[in-house]
Amino acid sequence: MMKLEQIERSVASLSDEELKSFAEWFDELRWERWDHQMEGGVKAGRLDRLVADARAEIAAGKTKPL
């Protein structure tokens, strides 16, 4: 049996309370990984163009205050 299949079976057998706890943990793990990816993108300069575009739109008055 593959590791993913084992995980799927284990998750499917959790009680409602255990599933809720697992889901909270898993969501946190996903957000941590997303944060790490974003940090890498920022450090590598991959977001510089988006920031520049946003600043240009603000300066041109193309945005609305929230």
Summarize, please.
This protein has a domain at 39-66. 76% of the residues lie in helices and 0% in strands. It has helices spanning 3-12, 16-43, 48-59.
Euclidean distance between termini CA atoms: 52 Å
* Gyration radius from CA atoms, angstroms: 20 Å
Per DSSP, the total helix count is 3
State the total count of DSSP E strands: 0
Strand fraction equals: under 5%
- Give a short account of the largest sheet: none
Please give a structural write-up:
The chain has 3 helices and no strands. The chain is an all-alpha fold and 66 residues long. It has a domain of 28 residues. The longest helix is centred in the middle third of the chain and has 28 residues.
What order do the helices and strands come in, and which of them pair?
Blueprint: H1 3-12, H2 16-43, H3 48-59
